[in-house]
Design goal:
Helix content: 55-70%
Structural class: mainly alpha
Number of helices: 3
Order of helices and strands: HHH
Distance between the termini: 43 Å
Number of strands: 0
Oligomer: single chain
Length: 62
């Protein structure tokens, strides 16, 4: 059994905070059945961008 198969049942919640009006409005415009997938795609994009930036910084000459 792979790691993903073991952790497949894990669920995460998202709580917006005051000041997240722009994010609230964007999410509210997405149909309920697509909202989870949109959030997942945003997180994947952000994660990959952060990891890419870390790799760029680490490769800079000292």
């Amino acid at each position: 059994m792979t790691f993903m198969e073991q952790k497949w049942e894990k669920r995460y919640g998202l709580h917006l905070k005051q000041g997240d009006q722009e994010l609230y409005e964007w999410l509210d415009d997405i149909p309920d059945f697509n909202r989870s997938e949109a959030i997942r795609n945003l997180l994947l994009f952000a994660c990959r961008a952060i990891l890419n930036k870390k790799q760029q910084v680490q490769s800079w000459p000292n």
